[in-house]
TrEMBL record:
This is 3-dehydroquinate synthase. Pathway: Metabolic intermediate biosynthesis; chorismate biosynthesis; chorismate from D-erythrose 4-phosphate and phosphoenolpyruvate: step 2/7. Its EC number is 4.2.3.4. One of its GO terms (biological process) is aromatic amino acid family biosynthetic process.
Amino acid sequence: MRTLQVALAERSYPIHIGQGLLDTFPLAEQVRGNQVMIITNETIAPLYLDKLQSQFSQIQCDTLVLPDGEKYKTLATLESIFDALLEKRHSRTTTLIALGGGVVGDMVGFAAACYQRGVDFIQVPTTLLAQVDSSVGGKTAVNHPRGKNMIGAFHQPRLVLIDTDVLETLPTREVAAGYAEVVKYGLIRDPEFYDWLETNNPRLLSRDSELMAEAIYRSCENKAQVVADDETEQGNRALLNLGHTFGHAMETATGYSEWLHGEAVAAGMVMAVSMSARLGWLDEGLESRLMALLESWGLPVAVPKGMTAAQFMDLMALDKKVHNGQLRLVLMKALGDAVVTADYPAAALQETLEAFCGV
Ligand SMILES: NC(=O)c1ccc[n+]([C@@H]2O[C@H](COP(=O)([O-])OP(=O)(O)OC[C@H]3O[C@@H](n4cnc5c(N)ncnc54)[C@H](O)[C@@H]3O)[C@@H](O)[C@H]2O)c1
Ligand SMILES: O=C(O)C(=O)C[C@@H](O)[C@H](O)[C@H](O)COP(=O)(O)O
Ligand SMILES: [Zn+2]
Protein backbone atom coordinates (compact mmCIF):
# COMPACT_ATOMS: atom_id res chain seq x y z
CA MET A 1 0.00 0.00 0.00
CA ARG A 2 1.23 3.53 -0.85
CA THR A 3 -0.13 6.59 0.92
CA LEU A 4 -0.32 10.23 -0.12
CA GLN A 5 -1.49 13.09 2.02
CA VAL A 6 -3.76 15.95 0.97
CA ALA A 7 -2.28 18.72 3.12
CA LEU A 8 -5.11 20.99 4.21
CA ALA A 9 -4.31 21.75 7.86
CA GLU A 10 -7.20 20.48 10.01
CA ARG A 11 -8.94 19.07 6.91
CA SER A 12 -5.89 17.00 5.81
CA TYR A 13 -6.50 13.40 4.86
CA PRO A 14 -4.73 10.35 3.44
CA ILE A 15 -5.17 8.66 0.07
CA HIS A 16 -4.34 4.96 0.42
CA ILE A 17 -3.62 3.14 -2.85
CA GLY A 18 -3.08 -0.59 -3.20
CA GLN A 19 -4.29 -3.97 -4.35
CA GLY A 20 -6.98 -5.75 -2.34
CA LEU A 21 -7.54 -2.87 0.11
CA LEU A 22 -11.28 -3.56 0.25
CA ASP A 23 -10.33 -6.83 1.96
CA THR A 24 -7.35 -5.75 4.00
CA PHE A 25 -7.66 -2.10 5.02
CA PRO A 26 -9.27 -1.67 8.48
CA LEU A 27 -11.75 0.98 7.40
CA ALA A 28 -14.02 0.59 10.42
CA GLU A 29 -11.19 1.93 12.61
CA GLN A 30 -11.32 5.22 10.69
CA VAL A 31 -14.94 5.98 11.51
CA ARG A 32 -15.48 8.40 14.39
CA GLY A 33 -19.08 7.64 15.38
CA ASN A 34 -21.21 4.51 15.67
CA GLN A 35 -23.25 4.86 12.47
CA VAL A 36 -22.31 4.57 8.80
CA MET A 37 -24.29 4.55 5.59
CA ILE A 38 -22.65 3.01 2.53
CA ILE A 39 -24.09 4.56 -0.61
CA THR A 40 -23.49 2.94 -3.97
CA ASN A 41 -25.39 2.13 -7.17
CA GLU A 42 -27.18 -0.83 -8.69
CA THR A 43 -24.17 -1.88 -10.82
CA ILE A 44 -21.55 -1.73 -8.08
CA ALA A 45 -23.67 -3.13 -5.23
CA PRO A 46 -23.63 -6.76 -6.44
CA LEU A 47 -19.86 -6.56 -7.00
CA TYR A 48 -18.47 -4.91 -3.86
CA LEU A 49 -21.12 -3.90 -1.34
CA ASP A 50 -21.08 -7.11 0.76
CA LYS A 51 -17.31 -6.98 1.08
CA LEU A 52 -17.37 -3.41 2.37
CA GLN A 53 -20.41 -3.88 4.57
CA SER A 54 -18.85 -6.89 6.33
CA GLN A 55 -16.28 -4.52 7.89
CA PHE A 56 -18.98 -2.78 9.91
CA SER A 57 -20.60 -5.61 11.86
CA GLN A 58 -19.95 -3.89 15.20
CA ILE A 59 -21.85 -0.65 14.51
CA GLN A 60 -25.04 0.46 12.77
CA CYS A 61 -24.34 0.09 9.04
CA ASP A 62 -27.09 0.98 6.58
CA THR A 63 -26.85 0.77 2.82
CA LEU A 64 -28.48 2.68 0.01
CA VAL A 65 -28.41 1.62 -3.63
CA LEU A 66 -28.99 4.41 -6.16
CA PRO A 67 -29.88 4.12 -9.85
CA ASP A 68 -26.81 4.10 -12.11
CA GLY A 69 -25.92 6.95 -14.45
CA GLU A 70 -24.90 10.57 -14.86
CA LYS A 71 -28.51 11.46 -15.60
CA TYR A 72 -29.33 10.59 -11.97
CA LYS A 73 -26.76 13.05 -10.59
CA THR A 74 -29.62 15.32 -9.60
CA LEU A 75 -31.25 17.06 -6.67
CA ALA A 76 -34.00 14.42 -6.77
CA THR A 77 -31.46 11.64 -6.10
CA LEU A 78 -29.87 13.73 -3.38
CA GLU A 79 -33.25 13.99 -1.70
CA SER A 80 -33.53 10.20 -1.69
CA ILE A 81 -30.23 10.10 0.24
CA PHE A 82 -31.56 12.53 2.86
CA ASP A 83 -34.79 10.48 3.10
CA ALA A 84 -32.80 7.31 3.80
CA LEU A 85 -30.57 9.00 6.39
CA LEU A 86 -33.55 10.37 8.27
CA GLU A 87 -35.52 7.17 8.03
CA LYS A 88 -32.60 5.28 9.61
CA ARG A 89 -32.14 8.08 12.17
CA HIS A 90 -28.58 9.02 11.30
CA SER A 91 -27.19 11.72 13.54
CA ARG A 92 -24.53 14.36 13.03
CA THR A 93 -21.83 11.85 14.02
CA THR A 94 -22.63 9.52 11.14
CA THR A 95 -20.18 8.77 8.31
CA LEU A 96 -21.30 8.45 4.72
CA ILE A 97 -19.24 6.11 2.55
CA ALA A 98 -19.28 6.62 -1.22
CA LEU A 99 -18.66 3.29 -2.95
CA GLY A 100 -18.58 3.97 -6.68
CA GLY A 101 -17.45 6.21 -9.49
CA GLY A 102 -17.54 9.97 -9.72
CA VAL A 103 -21.30 10.17 -9.91
CA VAL A 104 -21.81 8.39 -6.59
CA GLY A 105 -18.81 10.19 -5.05
CA ASP A 106 -19.94 13.68 -6.06
CA MET A 107 -23.48 13.09 -4.79
CA VAL A 108 -22.52 11.42 -1.53
CA GLY A 109 -19.98 14.17 -0.88
CA PHE A 110 -22.64 16.81 -1.43
CA ALA A 111 -25.10 14.93 0.78
CA ALA A 112 -22.42 14.81 3.49
CA ALA A 113 -21.81 18.56 3.11
CA CYS A 114 -25.52 19.29 3.60
CA TYR A 115 -26.86 16.66 6.00
CA GLN A 116 -27.31 18.29 9.39
CA ARG A 117 -24.97 21.01 8.04
CA GLY A 118 -22.08 18.62 7.49
CA VAL A 119 -21.06 15.07 8.42
CA ASP A 120 -17.98 12.93 7.74
CA PHE A 121 -17.58 11.07 4.49
CA ILE A 122 -15.14 8.57 3.05
CA GLN A 123 -14.43 7.99 -0.64
CA VAL A 124 -14.04 4.42 -1.90
CA PRO A 125 -13.66 5.09 -5.64
CA THR A 126 -14.29 2.20 -8.03
CA THR A 127 -13.65 3.72 -11.47
CA LEU A 128 -10.32 4.86 -12.87
CA LEU A 129 -11.75 8.37 -13.17
CA ALA A 130 -12.78 8.44 -9.53
CA GLN A 131 -9.45 6.96 -8.40
CA VAL A 132 -7.37 9.55 -10.26
CA ASP A 133 -9.55 12.60 -9.87
CA SER A 134 -13.05 12.87 -8.40
CA SER A 135 -12.44 11.16 -5.03
CA VAL A 136 -9.68 13.68 -4.20
CA GLY A 137 -10.16 17.37 -3.53
CA GLY A 138 -13.63 17.78 -2.08
CA LYS A 139 -15.52 19.14 -5.07
CA THR A 140 -19.04 17.77 -4.66
CA ALA A 141 -22.10 18.55 -6.77
CA VAL A 142 -25.17 17.59 -8.73
CA ASN A 143 -26.03 18.66 -12.28
CA HIS A 144 -28.78 21.00 -13.45
CA PRO A 145 -30.43 20.51 -16.87
CA ARG A 146 -28.86 23.84 -17.88
CA GLY A 147 -25.38 23.21 -16.54
CA LYS A 148 -22.96 20.66 -15.18
CA ASN A 149 -22.14 20.52 -11.41
CA MET A 150 -24.09 23.74 -10.94
CA ILE A 151 -25.25 22.99 -7.41
CA GLY A 152 -22.60 21.83 -4.97
CA ALA A 153 -20.14 22.52 -2.19
CA PHE A 154 -16.51 22.04 -1.23
CA HIS A 155 -16.45 19.31 1.39
CA GLN A 156 -13.33 17.22 1.90
CA PRO A 157 -13.50 13.49 2.62
CA ARG A 158 -11.79 12.13 5.73
CA LEU A 159 -10.01 9.46 3.75
CA VAL A 160 -9.75 8.04 0.23
CA LEU A 161 -9.37 4.27 -0.11
CA ILE A 162 -8.27 3.13 -3.58
CA ASP A 163 -8.36 -0.61 -4.18
CA THR A 164 -6.85 -0.97 -7.66
CA ASP A 165 -8.23 -4.53 -7.98
CA VAL A 166 -11.77 -3.21 -8.52
CA LEU A 167 -10.72 -1.91 -11.93
CA GLU A 168 -10.77 -5.54 -13.16
CA THR A 169 -14.56 -5.35 -13.54
CA LEU A 170 -14.59 -1.88 -15.12
CA PRO A 171 -15.68 -1.80 -18.80
CA THR A 172 -13.02 -0.69 -21.31
CA ARG A 173 -14.96 2.43 -22.31
CA GLU A 174 -14.98 3.58 -18.66
CA VAL A 175 -11.25 2.92 -18.25
CA ALA A 176 -10.59 5.09 -21.30
CA ALA A 177 -12.79 7.89 -19.92
CA GLY A 178 -10.77 7.90 -16.69
CA TYR A 179 -7.56 7.90 -18.68
CA ALA A 180 -8.48 11.28 -20.21
CA GLU A 181 -8.17 12.87 -16.73
CA VAL A 182 -4.79 11.10 -16.24
CA VAL A 183 -3.51 12.67 -19.47
CA LYS A 184 -4.78 16.04 -18.20
CA TYR A 185 -2.22 16.11 -15.34
CA GLY A 186 0.62 15.63 -17.81
CA LEU A 187 -0.67 18.43 -20.01
CA ILE A 188 -1.26 21.02 -17.29
CA ARG A 189 1.71 20.54 -14.93
CA ASP A 190 3.74 17.37 -15.35
CA PRO A 191 5.45 17.06 -18.76
CA GLU A 192 7.66 14.23 -17.53
CA PHE A 193 4.50 12.25 -16.62
CA TYR A 194 3.06 13.00 -20.07
CA ASP A 195 6.19 11.56 -21.72
CA TRP A 196 5.99 8.55 -19.39
CA LEU A 197 2.36 7.98 -20.43
CA GLU A 198 3.32 8.09 -24.11
CA THR A 199 6.31 5.79 -23.65
CA ASN A 200 4.33 3.25 -21.66
CA ASN A 201 1.13 3.54 -23.68
CA PRO A 202 1.12 -0.06 -25.03
CA ARG A 203 1.42 -1.54 -21.51
CA LEU A 204 -1.11 0.89 -20.07
CA LEU A 205 -3.54 0.04 -22.87
CA SER A 206 -3.23 -3.61 -21.93
CA ARG A 207 -4.07 -2.57 -18.35
CA ASP A 208 -0.76 -3.74 -16.88
CA SER A 209 -1.65 -3.57 -13.19
CA GLU A 210 1.71 -2.27 -11.97
CA LEU A 211 1.75 0.57 -14.50
CA MET A 212 -1.88 1.44 -13.89
CA ALA A 213 -1.15 1.67 -10.15
CA GLU A 214 1.76 4.01 -10.91
CA ALA A 215 -0.46 6.17 -13.17
CA ILE A 216 -3.05 6.36 -10.38
CA TYR A 217 -0.43 7.28 -7.79
CA ARG A 218 1.12 10.02 -9.93
CA SER A 219 -2.30 11.42 -10.83
CA CYS A 220 -3.33 11.59 -7.17
CA GLU A 221 0.03 13.14 -6.29
CA ASN A 222 -0.55 15.90 -8.85
CA LYS A 223 -4.14 16.47 -7.76
CA ALA A 224 -3.25 16.50 -4.06
CA GLN A 225 -0.61 19.19 -4.67
CA VAL A 226 -2.98 21.40 -6.66
CA VAL A 227 -5.74 21.06 -4.06
CA ALA A 228 -3.38 21.70 -1.13
CA ASP A 229 -2.28 24.96 -2.82
CA ASP A 230 -5.77 26.20 -3.71
CA GLU A 231 -8.57 24.27 -2.00
CA THR A 232 -11.50 26.37 -3.23
CA GLU A 233 -10.32 27.32 -6.72
CA GLN A 234 -9.35 30.93 -6.14
CA GLY A 235 -6.49 30.51 -8.62
CA ASN A 236 -4.49 27.62 -10.04
CA ARG A 237 -6.95 24.86 -9.13
CA ALA A 238 -8.88 26.03 -12.20
CA LEU A 239 -6.12 24.42 -14.31
CA LEU A 240 -7.73 21.07 -13.42
CA ASN A 241 -10.55 22.31 -15.65
CA LEU A 242 -8.50 21.96 -18.86
CA GLY A 243 -10.96 20.90 -21.56
CA HIS A 244 -13.91 21.10 -19.18
CA THR A 245 -15.46 24.35 -20.42
CA PHE A 246 -15.91 22.74 -23.83
CA GLY A 247 -16.53 19.30 -22.30
CA HIS A 248 -19.25 20.38 -19.89
CA ALA A 249 -21.06 22.10 -22.79
CA MET A 250 -20.97 18.80 -24.70
CA GLU A 251 -22.28 16.82 -21.71
CA THR A 252 -25.10 19.30 -21.11
CA ALA A 253 -26.03 19.50 -24.81
CA THR A 254 -26.31 15.71 -24.98
CA GLY A 255 -28.50 15.47 -21.86
CA TYR A 256 -25.84 13.81 -19.63
CA SER A 257 -26.62 10.51 -21.28
CA GLU A 258 -24.60 10.08 -24.49
CA TRP A 259 -21.07 11.10 -23.68
CA LEU A 260 -19.15 10.05 -20.59
CA HIS A 261 -17.51 12.88 -18.64
CA GLY A 262 -14.02 11.69 -19.54
CA GLU A 263 -14.95 11.45 -23.22
CA ALA A 264 -16.18 15.04 -23.23
CA VAL A 265 -13.00 16.11 -21.41
CA ALA A 266 -10.87 14.32 -24.05
CA ALA A 267 -12.52 16.18 -26.93
CA GLY A 268 -12.51 19.39 -24.87
CA MET A 269 -8.75 19.13 -24.21
CA VAL A 270 -8.14 18.79 -27.95
CA MET A 271 -10.21 21.96 -28.50
CA ALA A 272 -8.25 23.86 -25.81
CA VAL A 273 -4.91 22.73 -27.25
CA SER A 274 -6.08 23.58 -30.77
CA MET A 275 -7.18 27.07 -29.69
CA SER A 276 -3.82 27.60 -27.94
CA ALA A 277 -2.02 26.67 -31.18
CA ARG A 278 -4.33 29.01 -33.15
CA LEU A 279 -3.29 31.82 -30.78
CA GLY A 280 0.34 31.03 -31.54
CA TRP A 281 0.96 30.13 -27.88
CA LEU A 282 1.80 26.51 -28.57
CA ASP A 283 3.43 24.74 -31.44
CA GLU A 284 1.04 22.57 -33.40
CA GLY A 285 2.93 19.36 -32.73
CA LEU A 286 1.23 18.91 -29.36
CA GLU A 287 -2.26 18.78 -30.90
CA SER A 288 -1.37 15.81 -33.08
CA ARG A 289 0.54 14.09 -30.25
CA LEU A 290 -2.47 14.48 -27.96
CA MET A 291 -4.93 13.31 -30.60
CA ALA A 292 -2.85 10.20 -31.29
CA LEU A 293 -2.68 9.35 -27.58
CA LEU A 294 -6.41 9.87 -26.98
CA GLU A 295 -7.44 8.05 -30.15
CA SER A 296 -5.33 5.03 -29.17
CA TRP A 297 -7.71 4.72 -26.19
CA GLY A 298 -10.78 5.08 -28.42
CA LEU A 299 -11.52 8.52 -26.98
CA PRO A 300 -13.32 11.16 -29.07
CA VAL A 301 -11.32 14.06 -30.45
CA ALA A 302 -14.23 15.76 -32.25
CA VAL A 303 -17.50 17.27 -30.97
CA PRO A 304 -20.92 15.53 -30.85
CA LYS A 305 -22.69 15.48 -34.22
CA GLY A 306 -24.97 18.46 -34.78
CA MET A 307 -23.51 20.70 -32.05
CA THR A 308 -23.10 24.28 -33.25
CA ALA A 309 -20.71 27.07 -32.31
CA ALA A 310 -23.70 29.12 -31.10
CA GLN A 311 -24.81 26.28 -28.83
CA PHE A 312 -21.30 26.07 -27.33
CA MET A 313 -21.26 29.83 -26.71
CA ASP A 314 -24.68 29.72 -25.05
CA LEU A 315 -23.79 26.83 -22.72
CA MET A 316 -20.28 28.08 -21.95
CA ALA A 317 -21.67 31.44 -20.83
CA LEU A 318 -22.83 29.61 -17.67
CA ASP A 319 -19.40 28.13 -16.94
CA LYS A 320 -18.26 28.56 -13.33
CA LYS A 321 -15.08 30.24 -14.54
CA VAL A 322 -17.02 33.22 -15.93
CA HIS A 323 -15.87 36.31 -13.99
CA ASN A 324 -17.75 39.58 -14.43
CA GLY A 325 -19.25 38.34 -17.69
CA GLN A 326 -15.87 37.23 -19.09
CA LEU A 327 -15.31 33.59 -19.93
CA ARG A 328 -11.96 32.41 -18.58
CA LEU A 329 -10.53 29.41 -20.38
CA VAL A 330 -7.73 27.03 -19.50
CA LEU A 331 -5.25 27.31 -22.36
CA MET A 332 -1.75 25.97 -22.93
CA LYS A 333 1.57 27.76 -23.32
CA ALA A 334 3.67 24.60 -23.55
CA LEU A 335 3.43 20.95 -22.57
CA GLY A 336 3.13 21.08 -18.75
CA ASP A 337 2.36 24.81 -18.71
CA ALA A 338 -1.30 25.82 -18.65
CA VAL A 339 -2.95 29.14 -17.78
CA VAL A 340 -6.47 30.23 -16.89
CA THR A 341 -7.21 33.43 -18.73
CA ALA A 342 -9.85 35.66 -20.27
CA ASP A 343 -7.13 37.43 -22.22
CA TYR A 344 -7.64 36.00 -25.70
CA PRO A 345 -9.27 37.50 -28.81
CA ALA A 346 -12.95 36.52 -29.08
CA ALA A 347 -12.32 35.66 -32.72
CA ALA A 348 -9.90 32.89 -31.72
CA LEU A 349 -12.61 31.17 -29.69
CA GLN A 350 -15.20 31.64 -32.43
CA GLU A 351 -12.82 30.28 -35.09
CA THR A 352 -11.94 27.29 -32.92
CA LEU A 353 -15.61 26.45 -32.38
CA GLU A 354 -16.34 26.81 -36.08
CA ALA A 355 -13.38 24.60 -36.97
CA PHE A 356 -14.75 21.84 -34.73
CA CYS A 357 -18.50 22.29 -35.42
CA GLY A 358 -18.57 23.59 -38.97
CA VAL A 359 -20.25 27.01 -39.28
N1 LIG B 1 -15.41 15.98 -7.91
C1 LIG B 1 -14.46 16.01 -8.82
O1 LIG B 1 -13.36 16.54 -8.61
C2 LIG B 1 -14.69 15.34 -10.14
C3 LIG B 1 -13.60 15.07 -10.98
C4 LIG B 1 -13.84 14.42 -12.18
C5 LIG B 1 -15.12 13.99 -12.50
N2 LIG B 1 -16.14 14.23 -11.65
C6 LIG B 1 -17.48 13.74 -11.93
O2 LIG B 1 -17.42 12.32 -11.95
C7 LIG B 1 -18.46 11.81 -12.77
C8 LIG B 1 -17.93 10.75 -13.69
O3 LIG B 1 -17.43 9.70 -12.90
P1 LIG B 1 -17.14 8.26 -13.51
O4 LIG B 1 -16.44 8.39 -14.80
O5 LIG B 1 -16.54 7.46 -12.43
O6 LIG B 1 -18.60 7.74 -13.88
P2 LIG B 1 -19.67 6.90 -13.07
O7 LIG B 1 -19.64 7.20 -11.66
O8 LIG B 1 -20.95 7.06 -13.82
O9 LIG B 1 -19.16 5.39 -13.27
C9 LIG B 1 -19.05 4.88 -14.56
C10 LIG B 1 -19.79 3.54 -14.73
O10 LIG B 1 -18.99 2.48 -14.21
C11 LIG B 1 -19.75 1.69 -13.30
N3 LIG B 1 -18.80 1.17 -12.33
C12 LIG B 1 -18.20 1.86 -11.35
N4 LIG B 1 -17.24 1.11 -10.77
C13 LIG B 1 -17.26 -0.09 -11.39
C14 LIG B 1 -16.48 -1.26 -11.27
N5 LIG B 1 -15.45 -1.35 -10.42
N6 LIG B 1 -16.79 -2.31 -12.05
C15 LIG B 1 -17.80 -2.21 -12.97
N7 LIG B 1 -18.54 -1.13 -13.16
C16 LIG B 1 -18.26 -0.06 -12.38
C17 LIG B 1 -20.78 2.65 -12.77
O11 LIG B 1 -21.89 1.98 -12.23
C18 LIG B 1 -21.11 3.45 -14.03
O12 LIG B 1 -22.02 2.73 -14.83
C19 LIG B 1 -19.04 13.01 -13.50
O13 LIG B 1 -20.25 13.36 -12.93
C20 LIG B 1 -18.02 14.09 -13.29
O14 LIG B 1 -18.58 15.36 -13.30
C21 LIG B 1 -15.95 14.89 -10.48
O1 LIG C 1 -11.03 19.07 -8.89
C1 LIG C 1 -11.16 19.99 -9.69
O2 LIG C 1 -11.00 21.17 -9.35
C2 LIG C 1 -11.54 19.73 -11.08
O3 LIG C 1 -11.84 20.66 -11.83
C3 LIG C 1 -11.55 18.31 -11.55
C4 LIG C 1 -12.41 18.06 -12.77
O4 LIG C 1 -11.88 16.93 -13.43
C5 LIG C 1 -13.86 17.72 -12.43
O5 LIG C 1 -14.54 17.31 -13.57
C6 LIG C 1 -14.63 18.77 -11.67
O6 LIG C 1 -15.82 18.23 -11.17
C7 LIG C 1 -15.04 19.95 -12.50
O7 LIG C 1 -15.46 20.93 -11.63
P1 LIG C 1 -16.33 22.18 -12.02
O8 LIG C 1 -16.04 23.13 -10.91
O9 LIG C 1 -15.87 22.66 -13.34
O10 LIG C 1 -17.74 21.72 -12.07
ZN1 LIG D 1 -13.27 16.22 -14.91
